[in-house]
Write a structure and sequence with these properties.
With 417 residues, the chain is of the alpha/beta class. The protein folds into two domains: 5-11 and 22-77 and 183-251 and 343-400, FAD/NAD(P)-binding domain, CATH 3.50.50.60; 113-177 and 254-340, D-Amino Acid Oxidase, Chain A, domain 2, CATH 3.30.9.10. Helices cover 28% and strands 26% of the residues. The protein has helices at residues 5-13, 41-54, 88-106, 124-139, 149-155, 182-195, 239-244, 308-321, 370-383, 397-400; strands at 31-37, 59-62, 78-79, 117-121, 145-148, 170-174, 178-179, 199-201, 206-212, 215-221, 224-233, 253-264, 272-274, 281-284, 289-300, 330-340, 347-350, 356-360. The strands form three sheets. Strands 1, 2, 8, 9, 10, 11, 17 and 18 form an eight-stranded mixed sheet that branches. The chain has an eight-stranded mixed sheet with strand order 5-6-4-13-14-15-12-16. A hairpin with a 2-residue loop joins β9 (206-212) and β10 (215-221). α2 (41-54) packs parallel to α6 (182-195) and α3 packs across α9 (370-383). It is globular. The structure holds flavin-adenine dinucleotide. Flavin-adenine dinucleotide is lined by residues 37-43, 62-65, 69-72, 74-78, 205-206, 234-236, 238, 242, 257-259, 293, 336, 362, 364-368. Residues 34-78 form the Rhodanese domain.
Length: 417
């Protein structure tokens, strides 16, 4: 089933009776070439690119709940390529290019909106750091413009420039940054993978990983045993638990991250804005809700809901930056479980068990990574070679200490990233 303007018109005129389900609901087969554990953004994108780029279609995605019910449908939807360090810079640059072709590639409207991202700075030192980051972005082939205070005021006149605790010195503007509709990204990849023959199996929790003589042979699930030549673990906040089924101890802690949305308002915030003196970032959804978030809750947890101290911090930061939002009513808040690595950068690598592959450690930034991660992980699974933009995401960097990518410079402590 292809989407087009003509199709929408025809269905509208004929009672919308021609639409079909976006994917099948198959029974699991007894064996597959590749089993992907986790039907979030990364798992579904991996399945799609395995089929599309490598012709590997005897693949199952096993999801314990429903497709897109994890973090991929819980995030604040920010998409950007403004990373600084070699290793991250080329990966996110590649990922953003895939975003830019995604809707055509998937024939699906994911509402990708490149409305521009502005990171504010509030001191001379921060300006220097952002100028350096901007230069790294430009060197990578991405876009970055350093704005002074008046430049920011022109784009974001609603910020508090006069009476604020942390005066705004300027901002790093990334025009190609923006947002997308998060669950549509999962649905688009699911639809594309299913159309190429991948089995998407929901309500199927993996409860064990079978290993014989150092090689993975399949998985145990709540819907029976499934044999597989290769098994890929892509379960975000549950990475440590699922990897433990194969006897692995990952350098990952799980932490809750919260987000918030207000009632629908008329258009007011037409960029993505992040505050430089506290953890606060905000955009406005197409429905009009102000979508915003802050930092982790600062203790390890598997609870998908957060606590009041962080709610207070986020609201305070928002009020400091743009007091006008005090008039908006918050409708909902929720949490997601983040897979935090010691250096804040992800892992895309083979596990020390033959045939087992790991994709995890996306921390709070894995939504923008969905296409790049799926592409690179599919490449690794299909060829057993690292895809160059993701070649530094090795698991062994945490054992050797070489090649760490500490983007924030906060050191090797999970809850500071
Ligand atoms: C509040 C919040 C805000 C965020 N904001 C941003 C943002 O603005 N920009 C950005 O880039 N990133 C953001 N992120 C991070 C981003 O959402 C995640 O890094 C990313 O979605 C994780 O990858 P995923 O989509 O594959 O995870 P998920 O969608 O969580 O997928 C993992 C799947 O694995 C399944 N699973 C787990 N265990 C098993 C099992 N045993 N068997 C079968 N299936 C299993 C889960 O049910 C889940 O569906 C945010 C996250 C949160 C929570």
């Amino acid at each position: 089933m292809r989407f087009s303007g003509f199709r929408v018109l025809r269905e509208g005129l004929t009672g919308n009776r021609g639409w079909a389900p976006h994917w099948r609901d198959p029974e699991p087969k007894s064996d597959y070439d590749v089993v992907i554990v986790g039907g979030g953004g990364h798992g579904l994108a991996t399945a799609f690119y395995l089929a599309k780029e490598h012709g590997i279609t005897n693949v199952a995605v096993l999801e314990k709940g429903y497709l897109g019910g994890g973090n991929v449908g819980r995030n604040t939807t920010i998409v950007r390529a403004n990373y600084f360090l070699p290793g991250n810079s080329e990966f996110y640059s590649h990922s953003l290019k895939l975003w830019e072709g995604m809707e055509e590639e998937l024939n699906f409207n994911v509402m990708h909106s490149q409305r521009g991202l502005i990171n504010l700075f509030h001191s001379d030192g921060q300006r220097d750091a952002f100028a350096r980051r901007g230069n790294a972005m430009v060197n990578q082939g991405d876009d970055a413009i350093l704005l002074d205070r008046e430049g920011v005021r022109k784009l974001l006149p609603y910020l508090d420039f006069e009476n604020t605790r942390f005066p705004i010195y300027g901002g790093l503007y990334h025009p190609r940054g923006g947002t997308a509709r998060h669950d549509a990204v999962a649905w688009g990849y699911a639809r594309g993978a299913d159309a190429r023959g991948v089995d998407l199996i929901q309500n199927c929790e993996v409860t064990g990983i079978d290993v014989e003589q150092g090689r993975v042979t399949g998985v145990q699930t709540t819907r029976g045993a499934i044999r597989a030549k290769k098994v890929a673990i892509v379960v975000a906040g549950r990475s440590s638990q699922v990897a433990a089924m194969a006897g692995l101890r990952l350098p990952i802690e799980s932490h809750v991250l919260q987000a918030f949305v207000t009632e629908g308002l008329k258009p007011v915030i037409d960029h993505v804005v992040s505050f430089g003196m506290g953890h606060f970032y905000i955009s406005q959804s197409d429905k009009g809700g102000l979508v915003f978030g802050g930092d982790l809750d600062f203790y390890a947890s598997y609870a998908a809901r957060g606590n009041l101290p962080m709610v207070e911090h986020v609201m305070e930061a928002g009020m400091t930056l743009m007091p006008m939002i005090g008039k908006a009513k918050v409708l909902r808040s929720w949490g997601g479980i983040m897979d935090m690595t010691p250096d804040g950068s992800p892992i895309i690598d083979r596990a020390p068990v033959a045939g087992l592959y790991l994709n995890c450690g996306w921390c709070y930034g894995g939504f923008k990574a969905v296409p790049g991660s799926g592409f690179s992980f599919a490449h690794l699974i299909a060829t057993d070679r690292h895809h160059p933009p993701a070649a530094r995401y090795r698991l062994d960097r945490f054992a050797t200490g070489r090649g760490l990518m500490d983007e924030e410079g906060t050191g090797a402590q999970h809850n500071l990233h």
